[in-house]
Specification:
The structure holds 2 protein chains of 2 kinds. Chain A is an alpha+beta fold. Chain A has 5 helices and 4 strands; from the N terminus they run βααβββααα. Chain A has helices spanning 10-16, 32-41, 97-104, 115-125, 135-154; strands at residues 6-7, 49-54, 61-66, 72-80. Chain A is elongated. Chain B is of the alpha/beta class. Chain B has 7 helices and 5 strands, in the order βααβααβααβαβ. Chain B has helices at residues 7-15, 18-29, 38-46, 52-64, 73-83, 88-107, 116-119, and strands at residues 3-5, 34-37, 67-69, 110-113, 126-128. The chains are: A alpha+beta, B alpha/beta. The interface between A and B is large, with 42 and 47 residues.
Chain lengths: 158, 129
């Protein structure tokens, strides 16, 4: 677990949650738990990822997640050592260094995920591509192509 | 009895179809209580609109939340028997449906699809979503 003092600035709150400018707490939390409680108190949904700035390590940001049990969690493997100042956006699992790296790999490259990552990926995938035609149409088209290929292969014995 | 999700469920989930979203929400709550045919993986992976992010999304879904239903020799033979009475063009169009239907029948599962009419040519336990 990451230790240190978490900074939560008015700028962060305004940019991440524009509708929550007046009534949210801006005091500096003294622990991850308190930080998580602040976010939850301000109506931030469990399951959201965020990126926080650690005041003890001024050039370091890290990613964390508010779990379904309303706890803020982070892990050492999520450290991002790139200097980036105070973060200003709510991030998703796709913004974690691990997923960013996976995205740069080609289709077919190995994919290792934790259950929590997988659950979050699946959850936010719903409706991500409204531009696609209905599944029934896509499937029929795919099956025409595959069926044609299969029957061509069997042509000589048919 | 469990469900076997047809390929269109995956695409409709991606599109945001409410019924498909509900099916996936169910297995997120109770992982591995429904299955998918490995043939669906072939169909999805050959789809030209599948990029790396979509691949990761599908892997997350099928690896953690769905049971794999591989094509067995028994199901392959059954599908072949079903198809032999159809014309060449119909066999070409229905081959995948027959293979997935035979897989579901062998496993005693209900097919969940938006393409009921083609599946019901072979297998009665089909439910639209």
């Amino acid at each position: 677990m990451v230790t240190g003092t978490l900074v939560r600035t008015p700028e962060l709150i305004r940019e991440a949650w524009p509708d929550k400018t007046a009534d949210v707490s801006t005091e500096i939390p003294t622990s991850e738990e308190e930080f998580g409680q602040q976010l939850l108190r301000d109506g931030i949904e469990p399951g959201l990822y965020y990126r926080a700035h650690d005041a003890l390590f001024a050039d370091t940001t890290y990613f964390g997640r508010i779990s379904k049990s309303n706890e803020l969690t982070t892990s050492g493997s999520d450290w991002d050592t790139t200097p980036s100042g105070i973060p200003s956006t709510v991030y998703t699992v796709w913004d974690t260094p691990k997923l960013q790296k996976l995205l740069t790999d080609p289709v077919g490259a190995p994919i290792e995920l934790t259950l929590e990552e997988a659950d979050e990926i699946v959850r936010i995938a719903a409706g991500r591509r409204p531009d696609l035609p209905p599944g029934k149409e896509v499937t029929k088209e795919i099956r025409e192509v595959l069926g044609h290929s299969l029957m061509q292969r069997l042509k000589k014995v048919d | 009895m469990g469900d076997l999700y047809d390929t269109c469920v995956f695409i409709d989930y991606w599109r945001g179809d409410a019924a498909a979203v509900a099916l996936i929400a169910a297995i997120r709550g109770q992982p591995k209580t429904a299955s998918y045919s490995t043939l669906s993986a072939t169909e999805l992976w050959q789809y030209t609109k599948l990029g790396r992010q979509e691949e990761i999304e599908y892997v997350a879904l099928i690896r953690f939340f769905l049971k794999e239903a591989p094509l067995t020799i028994g199901a392959a033979m059954k599908a072949g028997q079903w198809l032999r009475s159809y014309s060449r063009s119909a066999r070409m169009r229905l081959a995948a449906d027959a293979l997935i239907a035979a897989t579901a029948e062998e496993r005693g599962e209900q097919v969940r699809t938006r393409n009921c009419s083609d599946f019901k040519k072979f297998y009665g336990n089909v439910q639209a979503y």
